[in-house]
Design a protein that fits this description.
This protein is α/β, with parallel strands linked by helices. It has three domains: 209 residues, FAD/NAD(P)-binding domain; 131 residues, 2-Layer Sandwich (D-Amino Acid Oxidase, Chain A, domain 2); 66 residues, no CATH class. β16 and β17 form a beta hairpin. The longest helix has 26 residues.
């Protein structure tokens, strides 16, 4: 094949939410941008598909209101089950986001990046990384060569470009594992049933099937997203019991009235994600003028497993960090990206989110007591709604500090907790 060479200010590798937002933002800032995706546009990704209020608001305010068009449903409440099946039914108090099909949501962000001026290359896999004539050279297996002055890596949890640039990869202890399905389901008829029985159209969260994580049911348009997520370390220790846990959650959901009869769901997908109280050790390479965003950087909340917020915000921050380096003529300014991330969401996500995760996931007993106490405290329930919606930049800090200050009273409330508590 004849060698083909293309030169850009910024090359963004990976067209998920982080990469597409980075490409969109960089294009709007006046850079010549290439957005490279190894799969075809419209490709799917196994994910709950929950776009939190914080992520949605950020996209609407900084990218486009068109993102709202991807919504399939907008649950106005949530139901949380403790390990012993104590039940919390609550509204979102205005902190709800939307549920999407990732194939549609991601395609919209790719489209917006293209419309902003980014050149989109689909079905293009990067095979090698090097430096050439003052540029960073990315070569495909087909012989194409992309030359970029800056590289933004959005290749997900399996990123290898960062590793090739000398950035330590995520450790096994920093991975999470999810398994489940997104299958046809009569959501419209169940929506009426749930509103009559629960007073809300909710998402469902089951704590207890795994130690460090939870199971979920997210109702979309004629589909149900059902999955279970935990750390990779715990998942590896299950000894092939993933299908048993999956089936047990389904049967428990029927007993608790989530479903009138057992749905015929089967595990048909699985995914590794970042899931720990620490992001990737380093988020940049000055030598290769490279920044890491989204899952490639490890930006997933250690309690909720939500990653879209960190993805889209980091994509925006990366583009602005490149602009700062360009305007000052100082490549070293790229190192300031880490500080920007920490100030914008990293401190809340990892420092306080990590503390929350330790409180909740250290033991099954601690998780049960903690959830019972929260269920009986109206203020704590509102903070939980805010956390699930990632409604602002200090949700984890606010939740952690409230729980810490009120441990004695929450413990008493946990002892006296009712079997079902409603806030609707």
């Amino acid at each position: 094949m004849r060698e083909k060479k293309m030169v850009y200010d910024i090359i963004v590798v990976g067209a998920g939410p982080a990469g597409s937002v980075a490409a969109y933002t960089a294009s709007r800032l006046g850079f010549k941008v290439a957005l490279i995706e190894r799969e075809a546009k419209g490709r799917d990704k196994y994910c709950g598909g929950g776009i939190s209020k914080g992520a949605l608001d950020f996209l609407v305010n900084n990218v486009s209101k068109e993102v709202r068009e991807t919504a399939e449903t907008e649950p106005d409440g949530f139901v949380v089950f403790s390990p012993s099946n104590r039940t919390l039914i609550s509204s979102f108090y205005g902190y709800q986001g939307i549920l999407v099909r990732r194939s549609v949501f991601d395609a919209k962000l790719m489209e917006l990046a293209e419309n902003a001026g980014a050149e989109f290359f689909e079905k293009t896999a990067i095979a090698s990384l090097s430096k050439k004539d003052g540029y960073v050279a990315l070569r495909t297996s087909g012989g194409e060569e992309f030359l970029g002055r800056y590289i933004i890596v959005a290749t997900g949890v399996w990123d290898s470009l960062g590793e090739k640039a000398g950035i330590p990869k995520l450790s096994k202890e920093q991975f999470g594992h999810c398994w489940g399905t997104e299958a046809s389901f009569p959501v419209d008829s169940y929506a009426k049933y749930w509103r009559e029985e629960l007073g809300v159209f909710p998402i469902f969260i089951f704590f207890g099937p795994v130690k460090s994580g939870y199971a979920w049911f997210f109702p979309k348009a004629n589909h149900m997203n059902f999955g279970i997520g935990t750390t990779l370390v715990e998942s590896s220790s299950l000894g092939g019991k993933h299908a048993t846990i999956f089936n047990n959650v389904l049967e428990n959901a029927v007993r608790l009235g989530v479903f009138r009869e057992k749905p015929s769901f089967n595990i048909d997908r699985s995914l590794l994600i970042p899931f720990s109280s620490k992001p990737r050790q380093t988020l940049y390479s000055l030598n290769y003028r490279m920044l890491l965003v989204g899952d490639a950087a490890g930006f997933v909340h250690p309690v909720t497993g939500e990653g879209i917020y960190g993805a889209v915000v980091s994509g925006w921050l990366a583009a602005h960090s490149v602009r700062e380096a360009e305007e000052t003529g100082e490549i070293s300014r790229l190192a300031g990206y880490e500080e920007k991330v920490w100030e914008k969401f990293g401190r809340d996500m990892f420092h306080y989110g990590g503390k929350l995760a330790k409180l909740l996931y250290s033991s099954r007993t601690g998780l049960e007591i903690g959830l019972r106490g929260i269920m009986e405290d109206g203020r704590a329930v509102r903070l939980l709604a805010k956390l699930l919606g990632h409604a602002d930049e200090k949700v984890s800090e606010e939740m952690y500090n409230y729980v810490l200050r009120n441990i004695p009273s929450l413990a008493i409330k946990a002892i006296l907790a009712k079997k079902v508590k409603k806030y609707v």
